[in-house]
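Request: Have a read of the protein record below and say how the chain folds.
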Amino acid sequence: MTTARDIMHTGAQWIPAHETLDRAAQMMRDHGVGALPVSAEGEQDKMVGIITDRDIVIKCVASGHDPSRMTAGELCDGTPRWIESTADVDAVLEEMQSHRIRRLPVVEDKKLIGMISEADLALHLSDEQVAGWAEKVYARA
């Protein structure tokens, strides 16, 4: 059985909710990622959301806000989603499809150990699985 751990990429990094979006953008650049899980104030292992590079551009810069003054916590909205490292691929796809999300943090013993992105799905799953995922995630609501 292929699990979330098998297809995730390691090295996912938290950004604290109080950090500014310019710092978030720098972290994304430095780690070569497009998303960062946001940790609760004073609780490194409690996720309050995820921010993406697109969120920073659309919800901050394009809206006239200053990324050096707006925080990661201010940008988060909705309920954060994640999956256990032992979950099978079908559970990963279901979680991502049902919530129409493109990135999914992977946890083990309540600790962030990785992230699953579109690229990870493309690398590890069949063309049919990826096509089915994309159809559901990208379909118009």
The first strand starts at residue 9 and ends at 10. The chain has a mean pLDDT of 91. The longest helix spans residues 127-138. The domain at 4-138 is CATH 3.10.580.10 (CBS-domain).
